[in-house]
Amino acid sequence: MKPKASESERYLSTSNRITGVVVMAIGVVGLIDIVLEWRTVGGLEVAALIGILMVLAYVGLVRPSVTLRPENLLIRNHIRDHTVPWGKITDVDVTDILRVHTENARLRAPGVQLVMRDLRKQRVGGRKLSPESSISRAEFVVDRIDNHVNLYGQSSEGEVVTSWARPELTIVGVLAVIALLAEFLR
Asked: At what angle do helices 41-57 and 14-37 cross, to 10 degrees?
């Protein structure tokens, strides 16, 4: 029987994701109201602008993440994705957000970030941080990445690949064109 390959691990900011989903839900309510009550060119323009704001909430709050896969590390930033083979990672650290160092670049990963409250507690040295603090969680992610580098780094080949978030950028572009056309047709 073959051993089961390691599954992907995904890390992201839960508070940002909750905020993003709430903002997008409010946007959906606004779009429903426009569809039911305001079927004019002005309504189309407002609906396109709400759509743009919803996509921006998704891109800024929901999309950023760090995914550890057996073959590579995937860093999803706001509008770009970085696929980093394990053998190319030279160092990993956390300042305010996770940073992955390669020979040629330092990639920032906003999917794993520190909460200012935890940073202040650590700086002051007062109350002990809880095991669920953002610092503990970030250190856990750094340890997991180091573990993957040690486990898969020797057998990992390839180059760092950076790509744009095409679907999100396309949707924003189309909605912007719709909003401009609606403005000129009014």
From this structure: 170
Rounded to 5°, angle at Cα 170 from 169 and 175: 100
Kindly report the pTM of this predicted structure. 0.82
**Cβ density class 57-90: b for 16+ within 10 Å, e for less:** bbbbbbbbbbbbbeebbbbbbeeebbbbbbbbbe
CA distance 148 to 162: 20
Residue 125 gets the label, from left (phi > 0), alpha (psi -120 to 50) or beta, of left
Going by C-beta distance under 8 Å and a sequence separation of 6 or more, which residues neighbour residue 55? Answer: 168, 171, 172, 175
Tens-digit pLDDT profile for residues 41-50: 889 999 999 9
